[in-house]
Each structure stands twice: as structure tokens, then as C-alpha cells.
From TrEMBL, chain A:
It is a multi-pass membrane protein. Keywords: Cell inner membrane, Cell membrane, Membrane, Transmembrane, Transmembrane helix, Transport. It comes from the Bacteria. This is Iron ABC transporter permease. The lineage of its organism: Bacteria, Pseudomonadati, Pseudomonadota, Alphaproteobacteria, Hyphomicrobiales. PROSITE patterns: ABC_TM1.
From TrEMBL, chain B:
This is ABC transporter ATP-binding protein. It comes from the Bacteria. PANTHER family: SPERMIDINE/PUTRESCINE IMPORT ATP-BINDING PROTEIN POTA, SPERMIDINE_PUTRESCINE IMPORT ATP-BINDING PROTEIN POTA. One of its GO terms (molecular function) is ATP binding. Residues 3-233 form the ABC transporter domain. Keywords: ATP-binding, Nucleotide-binding, Transport. Belongs to the ABC transporter superfamily.
Length: 547, 355
């Protein structure tokens, strides 16, 4: 074996092996979904889809919902980001909590707590009912739009914030010096610069709403939605419909692919690359302005934090079945969960723990090859690694269930299929984290080690890996956080006795047992937060160091 | 230990970057690869190091073929443009890295580290991390790290280009001194001609993957084999002219430059109907019209830049044909723009090369 090509062969085989693994667990399920939609024995899912107006209605509703939530998210997220980066006002530091909140609070919990406030039995609904004021029903459009907006607007906020911060004030000043008025020059110069980031955040929200299952199913009420119908076609007891589940999952995939292509196209037109310059020093606000803007920003933060407060209150409130006895505090909800059925907690720890470790290792190795050891296969690995972004959680679940139900790799009914679901869904997230740190480690470091006599593979472990460790640690904690709250895929592939915490919460909400659901939610938050706190406080891991 | 390269070819995919390159580097000498961006200097250096595979040809270190030897077994010292220090290790641990890989430890290792750092003048900074060093200090640590393992050859890819002008001179001095002291065969890559002339025993000027000329600094500068080399190594006036008749061989020929007849040297046989007139600005003398000696050409000063110890002029000698001229000595700035002047050429220093 020759010099450099000897070690290159190792990476060549490894990337081929990874490609095969990804093809089996990603492409094969996708293929099964698509072929399944054409049915067998003359029953074609696409014909049925077009014939039945409820399906078309669900697709229309999904698009309307995604559009509405995206617009509202931009309306909240963009001004908030501008406010946060350009002005300082009392209480501003609370805004820094926002990215954490969105990552940490699982959307089922957000939906649940909105129900506890405004649902048929909600605190506010009942209080107003005492004064004979009837609120419009929260099930349906109202609930969906409100809850999903507050679940997702922070994505627009975060991406806009980065753009406004990186924006060179000199550009704005230059425009002013050329004679345009401040407001006009701001719009003229700033808008085109931050637009790509706003768009990126908005499209992310759009795809997430389209793929959303938990909130859609809990709050959807009479509104038919694609993800919920797909789920029902997949798991409805006695009524599951293999052809329709494939067809609807294909539609979901198709819609997201179209959106992602639009995103590509918009980003490719983004000639707006700004050289990082002097970013604006925040202007202090005072008096009425401070009160108004600070108040508005504060309201957004308070509403975002509301789920936490409701959750904790609900968890410690005595309940008889669905009826909450507000004001009567108790530990009974926790006792019941921990004593009678601790399985969901243990399952979550086991599956998410395994998936996080596997996912981190796989994403580190794959990203390393993509960034540092490019060969014929690595561009394909890159594409496959981002593919799960184009698949809704429900579609991934259906694909896995169809592909590994018996046959040569029977995984249905095992914990492995849940772990697999977790790894696949969070792979793009983990890979993005890993590759961004790898791009920051110059190739010369590794070559320096080799030139000093250490072979390539030990060189990786001795000099590259130690430099990646801080980033791996933070990515691991974040991956853990987003994995334990996964619902839409696991709820399709799990089997009795293998419920995870989000699945259990979903079931409890479905049975209207809000107190138990709250207690489980608090435990879920603890499972998410404890590693984050330990990592940041004890091990000084910096989360969001890049953002 | 000498380096010998025989008929080397390197390709990236289908893109042929180095072709049929042969070169012999004397044991213990300082060899510089000089050339414009993209000509393949880094590629050649990294192929010598073993990071890139040769598609054809052989590389020999002191007579033994290393073409198929992996980089980590070639016993090379390498210094990178971006220092490539391990940021999580102290200066001491950076220098120790290669020694540890060779199984050294304990007191001997510590002594070697101390000596290596002492030699680059950083004996007191061993406990620091690279982030707490200046650019010049970092490159010195990198140098110590590369030399402490007593490599057979030292390879450096533009090690000075990230440093500011003053530091560049200092580190340049350190490199030359250490290289001479250790007598280690060195290949140095740069696109700075001044660096190349000042530091090297021999220079190889590269042009799109091939060596255009190999020679000592003065050979490269004085006896450039082509206008490309002459222009790259120091400023040169290059003007295309008709090839002088009857100069198939070498010697002095009479040529016509912008309509003026004059004599120039033809160092190598010319091919084709056109040739390149090459004269360095400092080799051209300048005198008021009528006061010049032999072998002169009349012109008009069209530009002047006073540079302290010398003055740089632009002189027009024909419609749109200008020459850069540099004068030193007393009254070097006495010619004013618009003045009619005579340009004097030394036939030995004025070359006619194949174009
Ligand atoms: N990994 C690569 N894949 C394909 N082509 C490459 C690669 N690396 C370099 N090249 C090409 O090979 C040629 C030589 O590159 P090389 O880096 O050796 O130039 P260089 O002389 O070191 O230039 P510079 O002075 O800018 O460092 C260039 O045309 C470059 O575009
Ligand atoms: Mg180079």
C-alpha cells in the first residue's frame, strides 16, 4: 500500500460503509413509502387522495396553518431581534433566555399548557365563564395558531438576531452620508442584508409546522391536518390503511422538498454576504419608549415562559380524573407516576441515551470525512445526512415501520427501532454541529502531527479530537435535549410497554389527565435540564458558542 | 541528506498540477521554490512530505526511495504558514510531541526541549499556550518543534507570510542560522523573491507545474533563462522585439528597440521570429540628452518617484513604449519630468531571451 493512498483507502472503505448504512436506514424506508403509495391489487393511493376531498382539505389546511404561523413568527421574531440587538432597556437580559426556552420546552408541553389555560376546562375559560363570558373554542384554528406561533417564533428571532448583530453599522452610516434619511437608509440597507436570514428562519418554521404532529393532534379539533391524518392512517386501531399512510407520507415529503428547494433558490440568490464589521452598540432607551418596547418584549418572554409556570402549578395540583382542584397542592401526581408506571422514564433515558451516543459518534465520523477526507462518496453522505430534514417525523416513522417489520431485519416491537428513529431524526442537527467545528480546525494541525511521526489515525485521536471535544460536549447536551422530547416518529414505531415520556404525556393529555401530564412534563424538563445545567455549570461547556 | 526527484507527476482528479519534474537538492543545502500563486509550489512540497501521492516518478531521500513511504515515516520536519501549533498544548508539550512519538521521555527529552527552545530564543516561554504568543514567537515554536526531532529534511511552506515586515526579517534570520547550524537539507516555499534571494543556496523558479530555472540566487537574477524568470525575480523591463538576425548561437547581437539600434547579449539560442528584450531598472543609466555614452537610446522622462536612496523614473523611448529606470548616487533625482534624456545600456547586462 502506498503512502498517502494507504490511509486514504481506510477512509474510502469507511465512507462506503457509512453510505451503505445510511442507504439501508434512510433511502430504503423512503423508497418503501413512495412505492407503497401506489398500492397493490389495483388500489392506488393517489387516485383515492384526489377522489376524497377530506385529504385535499387536510393538505390545504396544513399549508394555510404553516403560512399563518410563519407570518406571525416573522412579525414577532424580527422586531424582537432588532430591539434586542440595537437597543438596551430594563429587563433585556430576559431575552437571552429565548433560544434556550424553544429548545427546552417540548411542543407537547406548550400545547398542553395552553389547553390548561384556554381549553374547555382551562383556568381562564372557567374564570370568564363565571362572568358569563364565553371564549371562542380553543380547539381548531385559534389554538393551533397561537400555540404553534409561540412554539416556533424564536427560530426566526435567533436567525435574525445573528444577521442584525453581524451587520456592519458602517453600511448604514454610509447610506446616511449619501443623503437618505435614517429610517429610509435603514430599510434600504438593512433589509436586503438580513432578508436571507429572516427567510431561512421563516422557512424552517414553515417546514416544522407542516411536519408538526403533537400540537396539531392535541389542539387540531375539527381542523383536518395532513400530519394527523397520516398518523391516523398509520396507527388507527382496526382502521389502519397502509396505502393511504404511504400516500399521505409521500405528500408530506413532497411538500417539504418543494419548500427546501425554494429555500435553496432564495439562498443562492443571496448576494448579501456582509463582511463582519463593527456591529452597532445598543442604544439605551428611556421613558415612555423604554416602557413600551421593553413591555412588548417582556410580554413575549412572559408568554413564552407561561408553559413552565402552568406546568409546575399543574404538576403539584390535586386532581380527580380530569378535574383540577386548583389551590390544593399535592405530591400525589408524582408518586403515582413514579410508583405505578416508571417505565416511560426509564425507556426515555435508555433509548435517548443510546441514540445520543450513537448519533454523536456517527455524526462526528461522517462529518470528519465530509470536511477533511473528501472522496467520491462524501458528497452523497452530506446529502443523505441532511435528508431527514426533508422528511416529517411522521413520514420517517412510517418508513421505518414499513421497512423493518419482519423480513431480513425485524425491528418492530423492539427498543432498537425507537433508538433508530431518534438517531435518524436528529442526525442533521448533530452533523451540522460537528462539521461547523471541524471547519474551524485547520488541516495543518493534523499534518503537523503526522509530520512529527504520528500515523494518521492516532493523529486524529491525539490532536483533532481533543480540539473537537468542547464542541462535541455541547452538541451532545443539545442533541440529548432535542432527542428526549421527540414524539412524532417514536409514537408511530413504539410498541406497548416501550412508551417514552413524550408519548406518555401525549396519551395522558388525550385522556384529559392534565395533572398527571404536567407531572410527567416536569420530569421530562428535569431530564432535559439536568444535563444542561451540569454541563454548563460543572464542566463549563459553552452552549450556543457559535450563535 | 540530499533529495532527488525524478520525473515527478501529480494530478488532482484529472487536473495535472505537476508534470515531469526532476530536481536534485544537495545535502545540507537551502533550496527555495519560488513562483506565482497556483504554480504548484505547495503541491510539490506536500508531495515531498508524503501528504500527496505522486502519480508518476520517484522521490529519493539520500538515495533511498520514499515515494511509497507514508508521511509519518519519512522523518521530516514541517513548518506551516499558519504555524499549526496544537492550541490545547503548552509550548513545551508542542515541542515534546514529536519526541514522545519517537519514544523519548524523561530527562533527555526535557533537555532536548530546553535546548530547542533556547536556540529559537524562547527558553522562558515553555509553559505558555500558543494563544498567549505573538506571531513571530509562534513560528519560532513551530520551528523548534520541527527541528527537535532531527529530521532528514526540513520543509517549510511560506512560513513568514503571516508575519509583519519587521518580524519577517527576524524570523528569517533565525531560520537561516538554525539551518546552517544543523546542516539540514531544507526546502522552502515562498512567492517573495527577496526572501528567496536572501536565504537560499539555490532557487527553483516554477511555472505552471514545471521548473523554469534552477540555480544560485545570482544565476537566477543575472542569468535568467527567460523573461518570465527575469520578471519574477526582481523587477525587469520586458519588451517584445524582432529576433536579431543571424544569432542562432550565443554572443552579442545588434537589435532594434523602438526604432533605436543597440547591442545586447543573447545568452541562449533563440527560436522563432520574436524575442524578449530584458533589462533591469538599476542596470540602465540615465544622462541628460547628448551626455550619454555608447549603446544609448534617446527618451523623455514621463514619471518620477523620489524614494530616498534612489529615484525611480519612467522614460518613454517611443510611441507608448516606456522603460522603468532606477538611479542611485549623487543627484539621482536631478532629471525632471519632460526632460530629454539618454538611456545607457551595458551590453553584458542587457539580455535578449526567447519569448
Ligand atoms: N485539492 C485540490 N484539488 C484540485 N486542485 C487543486 C487542489 N489543491 C490545489 N489545486 C490546484 O493545483 C494548482 C497548484 O496549487 P498549489 O497549492 O500547489 O499552488 P501554490 O503554488 O502553492 O500557490 P500559492 O502561492 O497560492 O500557495 C492550482 O491550480 C490549484 O488550483
Ligand atoms: Mg501554496
Amino acid at each position: 500500500m502506498s503512502g498517502a493512498s494507504g490511509t486514504r483507502a481506510v477512509w474510502w472503505w469507511l465512507s462506503l460503509a457509512m453510505l451503505v448504512v445510511m442507504a439501508v436506514f434512510l433511502l430504503y424506508p423512503l423508497l418503501n413509502i413512495l412505492t407503497g403509495s401506489f398500492g397493490s391489487g389495483g388500489r392506488n393511493g393517489w387516485a383515492q387522495l384526489l377522489a376524497d376531498t377530506t385529504y385535499l382539505e387536510a393538505i390545504g389546511n396544513t399549508l394555510i396553518l404553516a403560512t399563518a404561523v410563519t407570518l406571525l413568527s416573522v412579525l414577532i421574531g424580527v422586531p424582537l431581534a432588532y430591539l434586542a440587538s440595537r437597543y438596551s432597556f430594563p429587563g433585556k437580559s430576559a431575552l437571552a433566555l429565548l433560544p434556550l426556552i424553544t429548545l427546552v420546552i417540548p411542543e407537547v408541553i406548550t400545547a398542553q399548557t395552553w389547553l390548561m389555560l384556554l381549553g374547555n376546562n382551562g383556568v381562564i375559560t372557567r374564570a370568564l365563564r363565571a362572568y358569563d363570558i364565553a371564549l371562542p373554542s380553543f380547539y381548531g384554528w385559534n389554538g393551533l395558531i397561537v400555540s404553534l406561533t409561540f412554539t416556533y417564533y424564536a427560530y426566526v428571532y435567533i436567525s435574525t438576531l445573528a444577521a442584525v448583530r453581524g451587520f456592519d453599522v458602517q453600511l448604514e452610516e454610509a447610506a446616511q452620508s449619501l443623503g437618505t434619511s435614517p429610517v429610509k437608509s435603514r430599510l434600504k440597507v438593512l433589509v436586503p442584508v438580513i432578508l436571507p436570514s429572516v427567510m431561512a428562519g421563516a422557512l424552517l418554521v414553515f417546514t416544522m409546522v407542516m411536519g408538526n404532529f403533537g400540537t396539531s393532534s392535541i389542539l387540531g379539533g375539527p381542523v383536518k391536518l395532513l400530519s394527523v391524518m397520516t398518523y391516523q392512517a398509520a396507527v388507527a386501531e382496526g382502521g389502519s390503511d397502509p396505502v393511504m399512510q404511504s400516500t399521505l407520507a409521500s405528500v408530506a415529503v413532497g411538500l417539504i422538498v418543494i419548500v427546501l428547494f425554494c429555500q435553496r433558490w432564495i439562498l443562492s440568490r443571496g448576494r448579501y454576504q456582509v463582511v463582519q464589521g463593527r456591529s452597532a452598540r445598543p442604544v439605551p432607551l428611556a421613558g415612555g419608549q423604554a416602557l413600551l418596547l421593553g413591555g412588548a418584549a417582556g410580554a413575549v418572554v412572559v408568554i413564552s415562559l407561561m408553559p413552565l409556570v402552568m406546568l409546575v402549578a399543574g404538576a403539584f395540583t390535586r386532581a380527580r380524573g380530569p378535574v383540577m382542584a386548583w389551590g390544593e397542592w399535592t405530591f400525589a401526581n408524582f408518586e403515582r407516576l413514579l410508583l405505578t408506571n416508571p417505565a416511560p422514564i426509564l425507556n426515555t433515558l435508555l433509548y435517548a441515551g443510546t441514540a445520543t451516543v450513537i448519533g454523536m459518534m456517527a455524526s462526528t465520523i461522517i462529518s470528519y470525512m465530509i470536511v477533511k477526507k473528501r472522496n467520491t462518496f462524501t458528497p452523497l453522505l452530506d446529502y443523505l445526512g441532511t435528508l431527514p430534514l426533508a422528511l416529517s417525523g411522521t413520514a420517517i416513522g412510517i418508513g421505518l415501520a414499513m421497512s423493518f417489520n419482519g423480513g431480513w431485519l425485524p425491528l418492530t416491537g423492539t427498543g432498537a427501532i425507537i433508538v433508530l428513529a431518534y438517531v435518524i431524526r436528529r442526525l442533521p442537527f448533530a452533523m451540522r454541529n460537528a462539521s461547523s467545528t471541524l471547519y474551524n480546525i485547520p488541516d495543518s494541525i493534523e499534518e503537523a502531527s503526522i509530520s512529527l511521526g504520528v500515523p494518521p489515525v492516532p493523529s486524529f485521536f491525539k490532536v483533532v479530537l481533543p480540539l473537537m471535544l468542547p464542541a462535541i460536549a455541547s452538541a451532545m447536551v443539545l442533541t440529548w435535549a432535542v432527542t428526549v422530547s421527540e414524539l412524532s416518529t417514536s409514537i408511530i414505531v413504539y410498541s406497548g410497554g416501550r412508551e417514552t415520556m413524550p408519548i406518555q404525556i401525549y396519551k395522558l393529555i388525550d385522556s384529559n389527565l392534565m395533572a398527571s401530564a404536567s407531572a410527567m412534563g416536569v420530569l421530562l424538563l428535569a431530564v432535559i435540564l439536568i444535563p444542561i445545567v451540569i454541563a454548563t455549570k460543572v464542566f463549563k461547556v459553552e452552549l450556543f458558542s457559535s450563535g | 541528506m540530499g533529495i532527488k526527484i525524478e520525473n515527478l507527476g501529480v494530478t488532482y482528479g484529472n487536473h495535472r498540477v505537476i508534470e515531469g519534474l526532476s530536481l536534485a537538492i544537495e545535502p545540507g543545502s537551502f533550496f527555495t521554490l519560488l513562483g506565482p500563486s497556483g504554480c504548484g509550489k505547495t503541491t510539490l512540497l506536500r508531495t515531498i512530505a508524503g501528504f500527496i501521492d505522486a502519480s508518476t516518478g520517484r522521490i529519493l531521500f539520500g538515495g533511498s526511495d520514499v515515494t511509497r513511504l507514508p508521511a509519518h515515516r519519512r522523518n521530516i520536519g514541517m513548518v506551516f504558514q499558519d504555524y499549526a501549533l496544537f492550541p490545547d498544548k503548552t509550548v513545551n508539550d508542542n515541542v515534546a510531541y514529536g519526541l514522545r512519538a519517537r519514544g523519548e521521555e524523561g530527562a533527555t527529552m526535557r533537555r532536548k526541549i530546553g535546548e530547542a527552545l533556547e536556540r529559537v530564543g524562547l527558553g522562558h516561554l515553555g509553559e505558555r499556550h500558543p494563544a498567549a504568543l505573538s506571531g513571530g514567537q509562534r513560528q519560532r515554536v513551530a520551528l523548534a518543534r520541527a527541528l527537535v526531532i532531527q529530521p532528514q529534511v526540513l520543509l517549510m511552506d511560506e512560513p513568514l507570510s503571516n508575519l509583519d515586515a519587521k518580524l519577517r526579517l527576524q524570523v528569517r534570520g533565525t531560520i537561516t542560522e538554525l539551518q546552517r547550524e544543523a546542516g539540514i537539507t531544507t526546502v522552502f516555499v515562498t512567492h517573495d523573491q527577496e526572501e528567496a534571494l536572501a536565504m537560499s543556496d539555490r532557487i527553483g523558479v516554477m511555472k505552471s507545474g514545471k521548473l523554469e530555472q534552477v540555480g544560485t540566487p545570482s544565476q537566477i537574477y543575472r542569468e535568467s533563462v527567460s523573461a518570465y524568470v527575469a520578471d519574477f525575480v526582481g523587477a525587469a523591463n520586458t519588451i517584445e522585439i524582432d529576433a536579431p538576425a543571424g544569432t542562432a548561437g550565443q554572443g552579442t547581437a545588434s537589435i532594434r528597440l523602438a526604432g533605436h539600434a543597440m547591442a545586447a547579449r543573447v545568452p541562449a539560442p533563440l527560436t522563432g521570429p520574436k524575442a524578449m528584450f530584458v533589462a533591469r531598472p538599476e542596470d540602465i543609466s540615465l544622462a541628460p540628452r547628448g551626455e550619454g555614452g555608447g549603446n544609448r537610446v534617446a527618451g523623455t522622462v514621463t514619471g518620477r518617484q523620489y524614494l530616498g536612496g534612489k529615484t525611480s523614473y519612467v522614460v518613454e523611448i517611443g510611441e507608448g513604449i516606456t522603460l522603468a529606470v532606477e538611479t542611485h548616487g549623487d543627484g539621482h533625482d536631478r532629471h525632471v519630468p519632460g526632460a530629454a534624456v539618454d538611456l545607457g545600456f551595458d551590453p553584458q547586462k542587457t539580455l535578449v531571451l526567447a519569448s
